[in-house]
Amino acid sequence: MADREQPVTLRTRKFIRNPLLGRKQMVVDVLHPSRPNVSKDELRSKLAELYKSNKDSVSVFGFRTQYGGGKSTGFALIYDSNEAMKKFEPHYRLVRYGQATKVEKASRQQRKQRKNRSKTVRGTAKTKGVEKKKK
């Protein structure tokens, strides 16, 4: 992991303090001339120390590396508290940061097949949806 020792520069712009959602939001420019990219985990810890916050209340997303490399641009949200983050942040991002558990459900195709099978059954037997009517 020699890449982690290479220097990385963070620049923030379009900084907005959003008191209704209890957060600071900004566009982050990451300069990484000698590295292919920078992990979101590393960016979260650097932004947390830069803004004197907890790493668990920082959310980064939407990073795109410029053509030719060396610079990435994305978005960062720094919440005032973990409660505000849990309240306003989308569930999939909370799962990404380990603050929520992923809801396990059947695949989209299986759910559609189950729905269509239940259409063929009449009456109260729709809970299973697999038994066909006998002729």
Distance between the termini: 68 Å
Helix content: 25-40%
Biggest sheet strand line-up: 1-2-4-3
- Unreliable spans are none
Largest sheet: 4 strands, antiparallel
| Order of helix and strand elements from N to C terminus | EEHEEHHH
- Given helix and strand content, the structural type is alpha+beta
Strand content: 25-35%
Helical region count?
Answer: 4
Radius of gyration: 23 Å
Mean pLDDT: 87
Overall geometry: elongated
The strand count comes to 4
Write the SSE topology.
Layout: E1 9-18, E2 23-31, H1 40-50, E3 58-65, E4 71-79, H2 82-88, H3 91-96, H4 108-119
Antiparallel strand pairs: 1-2, 2-4, 3-4
Structure description:
With 135 residues, this protein is an alpha+beta fold. 27% of the residues lie in helices and 27% in strands. The chain has four helices and four strands; from the N terminus they run E-E-H-E-E-H-H-H. It has helices at residues 40-50, 82-88, 91-96, 108-119; strands spanning 9-18, 23-31, 58-65, 71-79. The chain has a four-stranded antiparallel sheet with strand order 1-2-4-3. Strand 1 (9-18) and strand 2 (23-31) form a beta hairpin. It is elongated, with a radius of gyration of 23 Å.
